[in-house]
Specification:
Elements lengths: L6 E5 L5 E2 H8 L5 H9 L3 E3 L2 E2 L6 E2 L4 E5 L17 E4 L3 E6 L16 H8 L23 E7 L2 H12 L4 E9 L6 E5 L2 E3 L7 E3 L7 E9 L3 E8 L6 H9 L23 E9 L6 E5 L4 H12 L2
Parallel strand pairs: 9-16
Antiparallel strand pairs: 1-6, 2-5, 3-4, 3-6, 7-8, 8-9, 10-15, 10-16, 11-14, 12-13, 14-15, 16-17
Helix pairs in contact: 1-2
């Protein structure tokens, strides 16, 4: 098919499929929701006729034309948003992100993110991840609080990213899960990939990317468990998916959580408590710890009182 251009013509040489499914398979770089948006905007035609029906069947030998609009020119603005800076030097920043803050801008959400705040705080951020994610080496979900390492230059970025890849960096989390975990500790080794029917979700999937999570029980309550978790890998939603697979979804998780919960909370009770890495310049092992935020401590009290 080649690289994306403004106008792409495809010929279905396989089996009949509904239009949005066919385009999702042929154009893996585009999300299903974005393809459906293009269909609704009359940017897709079948055999020369515009089609706005995402369920329209594309038959064998049908010609499908899709017009991709020019990419939006993005300008991410620095914003004076308070940050909890745990550590900073000429190479790295360690920040304690609050629950509810998005790490980097994305379509439809270009303000109020950690990146917007970092751009105001520091004039030096690595450029490896481009204009959308300057300085961002790894990320945590919007409703996960805790520690992140930020690179201030490309050399530091490459060093920190290599440590994530070879699993030498330290990332430990604390979570409250629904249910009473039976084993005192354990390891979950289950590959994770994009959910085949819902691209916003991840799932344990044969053929997915390697994902390894270690967990240890800290305290058991009547209906919940406080656990520590250590990541070997860093897949999207890894802890949330693995704990849900075990039957102990994280409290408050809007995507993978329990259908009904005894303790109510908006957003998953998950905190990135410890972070460690080898400093890119000095070679020193550096470790940082972020105490449990107020929302997390209140949830623990609620779980304890339900005994």
């Amino acid at each position: 098919m080649g690289q994306l251009s403004n106008k792409i013509t495809l010929i279905n040489d396989d089996v009949p499929l509904r239009l949005d499914v066919y385009l999702s398979q042929e154009m893996a770089d585009l999300s299903r929701s974005y393809i459906q948006k293009l269909i609704s905007e009359e940017r897709v035609s079948i055999n020369g006729s515009i089609c706005q029906i995402k369920k329209q069947i594309v038959k064998v030998d049908d010609s499908v034309e899709i017009i991709i609009p020019d990419p939006e020119i993005l300008k991410i603005e620095a914003e004076n948003i308070p940050l909890d800076i745990v550590y900073e030097d000429d190479d790295v920043i360690v920040v304690n992100k609050p629950q509810g803050m998005v790490v980097h801008p994305a379509p439809g959400n270009y303000t109020g993110t950690l990146v917007n705040a970092l751009m105001y705080f520091s004039e030096r951020l690595s450029s490896i991840n481009g204009v959308i994610r300057p300085g961002i080496v790894h990320r945590i979900d919007k409703d996960t609080s805790g520690l992140l390492m930020i690179a201030k230059n490309d050399r530091a970025h490459e060093s920190l990213a290599a440590q994530l890849k070879d699993k030498s960096s330290l990332r430990e989390y604390v979570a409250i899960v629904n249910g009473v975990v039976k084993d005192n500790s354990g390891m979950i080794n289950a590959p994770i990939g994009r959910h085949p029917q819902d691209r916003k979700r991840m799932c344990v999937l044969q053929g997915g990317r390697e994902a390894v999570t270690h967990y240890e029980v800290v305290e058991r309550y009547k209906y919940h468990t406080l656990i520590k978790l250590k990541l070997e890998t860093g897949r999207t939603h890894q802890i949330r998916v693995h704990m849900a697979m075990l039957g102990y979804p994280i409290l408050g998780d809007p995507v993978y959580g329990a259908k009904s919960e005894r303790v109510k909370h908006e957003g998953q009770a998950l905190h990135a408590k410890m972070l460690g890495f080898i400093h890119p310049t000095t070679g020193e092992l550096m470790t940082f710890e972020a105490e449990l935020p107020e929302y997390f401590q209140e949830l623990i009290k609620k779980c304890q009182s339900s005994r």
